[in-house]
Amino acid sequence: MKYIITFLGLTGIMFGCANDPDPVAEKSQFVRIYDNTRFNASYYPIDVHQTSDGGFLVLGVRKLRTEELSSDFPGVYIMKTDAFGNFVSENLLDNTLVAPIAPILEVSGKYYFFCMKNLQTQLLEVDASGTIVNTMSTGGTYPSAAAVDGSNLLLLNYDFVNKQSVISIVGTNGNAQKSKAFTIGPNNDVDEPIYQHFLRIGKQIPFQVGKSGSGKYYFNGFYNYTLSLVFTDLAATNPLGVSNGQQEKGGFSQVLPLEGDAFAAARFNFGDNYILPNVTINTSAVSSVDKLGGNNFPELVDDAPIRIVQATIAGRQVLIYASNTRSRQIALFFYDKITSAFIGSHYLGFSNPFEVTNLISTTDGGLAVCGTTYVAGRFPRICLFKLSQQTVSASLHNK
Amino acid sequence: MIRTSTLLLAVLLSFQLYAQPKQRKQKFNNQNTANKQGAFLEKQWWIGLKGGVNLTEATPQQRYSVLTATSNYPASQLQKKYTAFNKTGSQATLEVTFYFKGFSFSFQPTYRHSRFTYSNQFEWTDTETVGNHLLLNYKQENIIDYADLPFIVKYDLTKTKLRPYVHAGIFYSVLLNATKSVNIEGTDFASGGTNQFSNEALIVGATDLYNKSYWGLLAGGGADYNLGNVRLVLDISYQRGMSNVTNTSNRFSNDRLSGIGDAMDDMKINNIVISFGCLFPMRFLGTGFKTLDR
């Protein structure tokens, strides 16, 4: 009897190490690089969004092929993956639709994004498979930034005729309900960086629009020749408050509203980058961004693009900053939301260059980080990192 | 004459009667010794060392890749091409064997150093400028060290001095160490000429990418040669892995490998193991280290 038990025990140990694939584990952690064999194809993601089926929609731009060039703007590319990151489908939109902007906006289970047709803003509704189901013209030129505002959308436009930054509330039917325009200055001083941004031939301006914790609308865009964070109630002619940058050389890289007038923010100033996990911005007066201080990060590339999300990791409220390092990796920096203490970091990518586009919290408590990598050191392709909750947790010290 | 004949017959009979018990005793003694020797030779303990070479084959079960094909992509381009039994490894074994009536029951803990390779070839072509294309070859060598714990049953086919045998068994292997080496070579046809290049090999620790253990079955044959008191042994085994060797939860955990598009397939490992060694008996008849098994 003793021998039988021993034999069964040993057999159990052996079969217990079968190590079969675990679908849950395979969904929770993966790395994908979506490749295309075309030598001259270029894809740059601008946002990633998790759909209700657990998969991901990636909105991107693509370099239009010579034969389909209708403008110098990049075309629209939508890719659908399943929950494992496997490629499902791609949609290369009509070449008249160009210059899409982030993020993918989810309202009542439907997905939307803005792009441009003949310089006019279009609102496109897309289903979870990445298929366009509705196209609506919203008016206004050069859509620059967007956000969800309850059941409506917020939109920032650049009006190149009147030289204005225009912030609007847009319904999901594409109709602008309310808008306010602010001058960028009468001359053409800031036109060049704006056009370079839209053509993707220069620095990407960190345009942003949203609503603060105190209920004020804001946009990060050009106002009075300067990249500024402008606060408005969409009623008053003048801004309620302005935090001025330094033309296009300094300003906020990204802000995330916290409570009241507090923000998790990042700023850049003539190449330097600063992280401010909790900063109170004067939303009722004129102030200067470069007076806000912050933690300097010399390891980041000059004027680094920065994305900020808020997540709960291991029961702890955490602010996660994602950016690009000089060593061509994607860096994730973790800050405690309550104490603003730096509590960890995590680096993604190696060998080939990697650049971050966006990161999101996923339904399983992990993170999805979308970016661009240069396959073989030269072909820009979309990459998607899915990090499990355990991996993210392990990146935090002082747990 | 009759008396003389009667006397001689009586003497012969008396000798015969005297001699018969002695012969019976001698025969009994010889038979007893043979029986003892036979009983002794029915079982024996052997212990010794073996060493040799091994060849490895990795058989993918489910394929994975970091590079993911979009619509115009031939899926075959992503599949790793494994080369079977092309790299020589080595192993060292401690053998402990119990022999009983032609069968041997053997435990042979082994340190095994194995190597196998796979490769990928990727090509990017320009649809607008024919001739512009880039070809990259990724060659990966996997080096894995295992502690094998096999339990083997042998059967001697003959009982001669040179004893061929067949064996079969089960083994359990514990991972000790693993590394991967990646060589990238390419040909660039898009730089105004044909430029062949190769990058410095990327060598990374890969212990976390492998499962801590796996199990398998083995079969093979060999021969023992009794040389003096020791036994020389030469055997060959085919070890068939029965469980996945890849750590499924760490498949994408190595940034260096993920960065160049590599992720481990689920796979099983098979080995051809050739060993030569020397065994020593542990039971002796009397003094002088005579085993009589020769």
How does this structure look, described?
The complex is a heterodimer of chains A (399) and B (294). Chain A has 399 residues and is mainly beta. Chain A has a domain at 305-399. Helix content of chain A is 9%, strand content 52%. Chain A contains 4 helices and 29 strands. The longest helix of chain A has 15 residues, at 2-16. The model of chain A has no long low-confidence stretch (mean pLDDT 91). By secondary structure, chain B is an alpha+beta fold. Chain B has one domain (49-159, 168-217, 236-280). Chain B is built from 2 helices and 13 strands. Chain B has helices at residues 2-41, 255-259, and strands at residues 43-62, 67-69, 81-83, 88-100, 103-107, 110-125, 133-156, 162-188, 195-198, 202-205, 213-227, 230-241, 266-281. In chain B, strands 1, 3, 4, 5, 6, 7, 8, 9, 10, 11, 12 and 13 form a 12-stranded antiparallel β-sheet that branches. In chain B, 30% of the residues are buried. At the A-B interface, helix 1, strand 1 and strand 5 of A face strand 2, strand 6, strand 7, strand 8 and strand 11 of B.
Compile the SSE list and pairings.
The complex is a heterodimer of chains A (399) and B (294).
Chain A: H1 2-16, H2 23-28, E1 30-35, E2 43-50, E3 56-62, E4 75-81, E5 87-92, E6 97-107, E7 110-117, E8 120-126, E9 132-141, E10 143-149, E11 152-159, E12 164-170, E13 176-183, H3 191-199, E14 208-211, E15 217-223, E16 226-232, E17 241-244, E18 250-257, E19 262-269, E20 272-280, E21 286-288, E22 295-296, E23 307-313, E24 316-324, E25 330-336, E26 342-348, E27 354-361, E28 367-375, E29 379-387, H4 389-394
Parallel strand pairs in A: 17-21
Antiparallel strand pairs in A: 1-29, 2-3, 3-4, 4-5, 6-7, 7-8, 8-9, 10-11, 11-12, 12-13, 14-15, 15-16, 16-17, 18-19, 19-20, 20-22, 23-24, 24-25, 25-26, 27-28, 28-29
Chain B: H1 2-41, E1 43-62, E2 67-69, E3 81-83, E4 88-100, E5 103-107, E6 110-125, E7 133-156, E8 162-188, E9 195-198, E10 202-205, E11 213-227, E12 230-241, H2 255-259, E13 266-281
Antiparallel strand pairs in B: 1-4, 1-13, 3-6, 4-5, 4-6, 5-7, 6-7, 7-8, 8-9, 8-10, 8-11, 11-12, 12-13
